[in-house]
């Protein structure tokens, strides 16, 4: 569902739409690595990976899809909040059973899908 929405929105983001599948992520501390990997952002000596992501995204118009956040929701909330405050043209679509509870968040409940 998130990928379908992202596909519909793609032309509004000149620097792309990037999806980070979080279901396999077991350690919330690895969230910045997962996002950096999806964006092909490399670690820079003397800077945190989050700082490298900010530097990469701050001048780009990007939609970042964080899919399946519920098991790392606190880490997603922290990273999303940091990136959104520093990167004015970044938009994040997060899928989760829990809200991130950050400023500016809009929540759309989705009923269970039929099988």
Describe the structure.
This protein has helices at residues 2-9, 31-39, 49-57, 73-86, and strands spanning 17-21, 62-67, 90-94. The longest helix has 14 residues, at 73-86. Strands 1-2-3 form a three-stranded parallel beta sheet, sandwiched between helices. The chain has one domain (2-94): P-loop containing nucleotide triphosphate hydrolases (Rossmann fold, 3-Layer(aba) Sandwich), CATH 3.40.50. The chain is globular, with a radius of gyration of 14 Å. It is α/β, with parallel strands linked by helices. It is built from four helices and three strands.
Short précis:
Helices cover 35% and strands 14% of the residues. With 115 residues, it is α/β, with parallel strands linked by helices.
Describe this protein with a few key phrases.
alpha/beta, Rossmann fold, single chain, globular, 115 residues, 4 helices
CATH architecture: 3-Layer(aba) Sandwich
Low-confidence stretches: none
Q: Strand order across the biggest sheet?
A: 1-2-3
Structural class: alpha/beta
Look up the CATH topology.
Rossmann fold
Number of domains: 1
Order of helices and strands: HEHHEHE
Query: So, the CATH homologous superfamily?
Result: P-loop containing nucleotide triphosphate hydrolases
| Average pLDDT metric | 92
Q: What is the number of beta strands? A: 3
Tell me the major beta sheet.
3 strands, parallel
List the helices and strands and how they pair.
Blueprint: H1 2-9, E1 17-21, H2 31-39, H3 49-57, E2 62-67, H4 73-86, E3 90-94
Parallel strand pairs: 1-2, 2-3
